[in-house]
Amino acid sequence: MFYREAGDFKTSYRDDSQTFPIRFDRLRYYAVLVVAFGIIPFVINDYWANAVFVPFLIYAIAAIGLNILTGYCGQVSLGTGGFMAVGAYAVYKLMTAFPEVSILIHVLLAGGVTAGVGVLFGLPSLRIKGFYLAVATLAAQFFLVWLFNKVPWFYNYSASGQITAPERTILGVAVTGANTPAWAKYLFCAVILFALAWLARNLTRGTVGRKWMAIRDMDIAAEIIGVNPLTTKLSAFAVSSFFIGVAGALFFAVYLGAAEVGEAFGINKSFLVLFMIIIGGLGSIFGSFAGAAFLVLLPVFLKNVLVGVLGWPTDLAAHIELMIVGGLIITFLIAEPHGLNQLWRVAKEKLRLWPFPH
Amino acid sequence: MPDTFFYALEVSLNGLMAGVMYSLVALGFVLIFKASGIFNYAQGVLALFAALTLVGLQNGQVPFAHLINAVFGTSIHGFGWQLPGIIAILLTALVMVGLAILIERYILKHLVNQEPIILFMATIGLAYFLEGLGDVMWGADIKKLDVGLPQGISDAIESTTYEWFGYGFFIDRLDMVAAVVAALLVASLTLFSQYTKYGRALRAVADDHQAALSVGISLRFIWVLVWSIAGFVALVAGIMWGSKSGVQFSLSLIALKALPVLMLGGFTSIPGAIVGGLIIGMGEKLFEFFIGPLVGGATENWFAYVLALLFLVFRPQGLFGEKIIERV
């Protein structure tokens, strides 16, 4: 009825190759943008910003980053936490060293620094493949966390070993520090997420993305048809690490405010982001959003039900939560190994034929 | 100078002993990887779960006591008996076999023919689940595990070496027991896989799934078998680590330490797991001893991974792994 190509005539190549060729999809996209930028910032409060929206936006950036590397280019990485730490410490050093420069530039530069580190740790991927590579990226995870713990220069010789974000403003409104209004936090992350998701979407459907996918599907065959594995793999590591670095910078500066590296960027963070893209769907931008939303909302929901409604002790609830998360992941993998994105795709297919499926 | 030499020797001996402990965990990984191509992240949590169950059975704790108390408002804690160590170990081994059957029935059966990454993720999910289950069943506090293994520094070795070299070596008695147990375990696993019917079936499956199916070997039975054996190896690892440092959550993290061991030795080789463990154990202790003080210590956190990473760049299949052949 409403989800149809029919009647939506394209009169130029430009129209024909747009991201959302179906009119309903385009309208939905604009509607999401209106809600995200026109409504939520005006009604958001501190609880919703801190518990749901800001972590969702930041994890979505990280998930898109990891999805570029793992979903599109096929290189499994367990070093996400370490790369997020690089972003966080880079932005901290930049913020304290150049206080007069805009925080936005610092966040992007932190992404750039992480991209450099990512390329460095991506070099072995030319020799090592599959699980061996996944374990090799653990080296990045543990080494980086150790480095930020042990070298005092990174945390400006502070006595506690923590890093604390100073207050920085954009157009006179604080976006980091203790006095940040909830809507500013939300809007700052949302704008960056929107820009990066747009970038990722267009990268992955262009030449670069096709090269990544060729390497993922079979690297030897890709090499034979003229895809250079060196530049392709390293570009995937660079772009992915850029995204993850930006996510790490925002996670520290906007969300946490103060961070201790082992706690905030440990191995669990790597697994969390990996879960997000598996549950959301490998090789899809929508899947990154869906996975991030699912894994941010689930613990909030479970905590509210188990502690709030049933009144169980918090430690017991935490253990049950672990069991439920583990069980859900297994159930998901059995029921739909291609993730939430696949459910979405099937729903769209059904909608296209509705109400006459034959 | 001789003192530094002897000290370094002692450090490397202790490193070798620690390496044996890593090897124990790595063994379980290799067994499952060979038989089913599954990279079993849950191996460390299996060890934790086994150790928790062992302590719980030994002390006569009521399973799920915390949960029952929370739901029904009761206050029960234990049956009030103490089981002898050997019976508790046998019962725990039974529990691990039961667990293997459940894992096969509810997880693996449904994931046949999925990509390796999906199976790997499923075992991470399993790890979370078991971690939660262990805590809910037996409580999350740190427990002391004592099944009568010798503890402390061996006086005999210290005095003997002092007579010989003028320098007494400190060797933990538990570490020596672990080394002996690991040797026995490897020997019995080798005997089992070479000289029994099921061992041959196991090797056939490891070699080629489809060929094994076509000559009438039941894959499902083999999977249950191999997960039971891995559970048993996890139990042994759990007993050793639990006696050494108490049964607590960090026990499951040793699984991560077993990964570089595997990479170094090759995912598919049992001797590789042992040799890799020894190299990693000795390497990280020596590195910490010589280089650690220069860079601020705690290098044990990452040394193993970086060593494995550098090693793999030159030999991607590990020391004893099968050569990776790629075809288009």
Automatic annotation (TrEMBL), chain A:
Main location: membrane
Cellular localisation: Cell membrane
GO molecular function, one term: branched-chain amino acid transmembrane transporter activity
Coiled coil stretches, renumbered: none
Pfam families recorded: BPD_transp_2
PANTHER family: ABC TRANSPORTER PERMEASE PROTEIN, HIGH-AFFINITY BRANCHED-CHAIN AMINO ACID TRANSPORT SYSTEM PERMEASE
UniProt protein name: Branched-chain amino acid ABC transporter permease
